[in-house]
TrEMBL record:
Keywords: Hydrolase, Metal-binding, Nucleus, Zinc
Superkingdom of origin organism: Eukaryota
Name by which UniProt lists this protein: Ester hydrolase C11orf54-like protein
Broad class of where this protein is predominantly found: nucleus
GO cellular component, one term: nucleus
UniProt organism field: Ooceraea biroi (Clonal raider ant)
Alphabetical list of Pfam families matching this protein: DUF1907
Presence of the UniProt keyword Metal-binding in the record: yes
InterPro entries linked: C11orf54_DUF1907
GO MF term list: hydrolase activity, acting on ester bonds; zinc ion binding
Residue span, DUF1907 domain: 35-321
Matching PANTHER family: ESTER HYDROLASE C11ORF54, PTD012 PROTEIN
Localization: Nucleus
Signal peptide span: none
Length: 333
């Protein structure tokens, strides 16, 4: 946080943004269990997957201010890494509350979780967004959102900022991959995986399984997972680069990579394919209130000991908001 550097930038008006809404193919949870299990078993020694009731997501380590992942589930792919690269486009500033109102998704309680870039005009500095919030039908916010920053100390330790629970802060910058539902209890897919022997991360093995099974259909999922008993490679964006980032190497040099301690709790989305909507196929950010860490999930670095526990639901619609005219050539991982 750099509150002295706050900027008076207003979120883009949803009615002025391009929004492409597309129904998603919704396999049954039974079928998805089979598909995802195959991907997980190719990558992990111990896998337990099935249909299960949501744990109470009101409680730690989730802290969603809603009980479940069910009720009218949708996914958003908003903005794009193309608005970050090669240089940050400072007008790309969004408000999820006004987007949901614009889409008439505001008459019910809703849970918003996901990954994106934090609202630099409010924080005064670019950061990672770990969005978790409950919006009531009266548009009141219960916030559990976290921002992860690269600390301005010599060794650049990660700094986690906790948005106060009653703060009406629903904005973010540049890009976001969000899962929205009514936050009701219900049945979802529960996954436990241990001892990674494949090269894919926890989400990639499931995302690729969706991609190879549903070749001509688009499937979208969202949810959360907890990582325990290991270390996790995550990145945090530094403040905006003063020079353009023109290659993967320049991007990776600008990002600050960390090996973070667990437990970490992640939120985000994954879809079966990029399609003509130029979707980001997976995007999860995680944080730990205990260790005051957070960032963009890449993979565990302790495959022998790592344990994942995840809960996911399948969405009915995807809204692609503000898709750029030109497809980005690098930087979508
Ligand atoms: Zn990210």
């Amino acid at each position: 946080m750099d509150p002295g550097n706050r900027q008076n930038v207003q979120p883009l008006e949803p009615s002025k943004l391009s929004i492409k809404s597309r129904p998603l193919y919704q396999p049954s949870l039974e079928e998805l269990v089979d598909v995802l299990e195959e991907g997980l078993r190719a990558n992990f020694v111990e896998v337990t997957i099935g249909i299960t009731d949501c744990p109470n997501f009101n409680e730690q380590p989730y802290n969603f201010h809603r009980e479940g992942l069910c009720g009218n589930p949708i996914v958003f792919d908003i903005g794009d890494p193309a608005y970050l690269l090669p240089s940050a486009q400072r007008d790309k500033f969004y408000d999820v509350k006004s987007l949901l109102r614009h889409l008439n998704y505001n008459t019910t309680d809703c849970l918003v979780i996901g990954a994106g870039a934090g609202p630099w005009p409010r924080t005064g500095c670019n950061c990672e967004l770990i969005m978790k919030m409950h919006l009531s039908p009266r548009q009141e916010v219960e916030n559990a959102t976290r921002y992860a920053f690269v600390g301005k100390t010599p060794n650049e330790e990660c700094v986690l900022h906790q948005v106060p629970v009653n703060e009406d802060e629903t904005t973010f910058a540049l890009l976001g991959n969000l899962y929205v539902c009514e936050g009701r209890p219900g049945q979802v897919i529960g996954v436990r995986a241990k001892k990674r022997t494949g090269n894919l991360d926890f989400i990639a093995c499931m995302q690729k399984a969706l991609g190879s099974r549903y070749k001509d259909k688009l499937v979208g999922m969202g949810g959360t997972f907890v990582m325990r008993n290991g270390m996790i490679k995550q990145h945090v964006m530094r403040d905006f680069s003063k020079t353009p980032l023109n290659s993967e190497a320049e991007l990776n040099n600008w990002l600050r990579f960390y090996e973070m301690e667990t437990p970490l709790t992640a939120v985000g989305t994954f879809v079966s394919a990029e399609t003509d909507l130029d979707l980001r196929v997976q995007h999860f950010h995680s944080a730990s209130d205990e260790n005051k860490l957070g960032g963009h999930y890449h993979i565990d670095t302790t495959p022998d000991t790592i344990e994942y526990e995840g809960y996911f639901n399948v969405a009915t619609i995807i809204h692609r908001v503000d898709q750029p005219a030109n497809k980005l050539q690098f930087g979508k991982d």
